[in-house]
Write a structure and sequence with these properties.
Length: about 260
């Protein structure tokens, strides 16, 4: 299973400046190409990285903010026999990001809410609760015997960590470094708290969705801090980063220190 970060940026200022790309994430399995949150630049980044949007057969849309949905119309025209899984607020009403014309490119459109499980052949998608001001959702993706958690945009809340017990890889959107609090988003300090609360910890963590403050401090330094304080291997996403899930899960050390397995 391969994971491709078409972008690692988030928030209004990074979106506006494209200091980091905002194209979302691809998860590629034997039977599926899953595109999570195709924000602005998704199609261009796919071309640059030689990724074929026509192979996408599942699109996961966590919410309607532009940095997560800006290329939805272009991706919709490119997909082939695909399923769109999204909260209803992205599909209908004043904030919808896809109209009836673009909906026709999908074989099926499925609304998701927290705890709802959607099964597509050998793929299971479960919605997870977020607190993000506007409506939003996270996902747990199960396929090929592995579980990947995508926390989505959320602030910290008491039961957030419990939703991701036992995932193999946890992808966390971390807008700001250290304790630089911003409402309805996560900081490095809060990520450390979340990982400490998870009893059956993920084998690996990747942080992404960086704002300008995070970029100034350096996501790599923040990933190092998370790794050392939680004993969970953590890396920071880069634009265009490609990883094989199997390789990441086998890694038991980072930055010269061993981690318990």
């Amino acid at each position: 299973m391969e994971i491709v970060f078409l972008g690692s940026g988030g928030g209004r200022m990074v979106l506006a400046t494209q200091a980091r790309s905002t194209g979302g994430i691809l998860i590629k399995t034997d039977n599926h190409q899953i595109h999570i949150d195709p924000g602005p630049g998704a199609l261009l980044k796919m071309k640059m990285l030689r990724q074929d949007p026509r192979r996408t057969n599942v699109v996961l849309l966590s919410h309607y903010h532009t940095d997560h949905s800006g290329d939805m119309e272009g991706i919709s025209e490119a997909v082939n026999e695909a399923v769109l899984i999204s909260i209803k607020e992205c599909l209908i009403g004043d904030n919808k990001v896809i109209n009836e014309f673009y909906k026709k490119f999908y074989n099926e459109i499925i609304e998701i809410i927290p705890k709802k499980e959607i099964e597509l052949s050998d793929l299971k998608i479960t919605g997870t609760k977020t607190i993000h001001g506007d409506k939003s959702i996270g996902f747990i993706i199960e396929t090929e015997g592995k579980k990947i958690g995508y926390m989505g945009d959320t602030g910290y809340f008491k039961t957030l960590s419990k939703q991701f017990e036992g995932v193999d890889l946890l992808i966390i959107n971390v807008l700001r470094p250290n304790n630089a609090y911003w409402k309805n988003h996560l900081t490095t300090n809060e990520v450390i708290k979340i990982l400490d609360e998870i009893k059956e910890k993920p084998k690996s963590v990747i942080i992404t969705h960086f704002g300008l403050k995070m970029l100034r401090v350096g996501p790599l330094n923040q990933a190092r801090r998370i790794s050392l304080e939680t004993k969970v291997p953590c890396r920071s996403a880069e634009d265009g980063m490609k990883i094989l899930l199997e390789d990441v899960l086998e890694q038991t050390s980072l930055f010269g220190r061993k981690f318990k397995t």
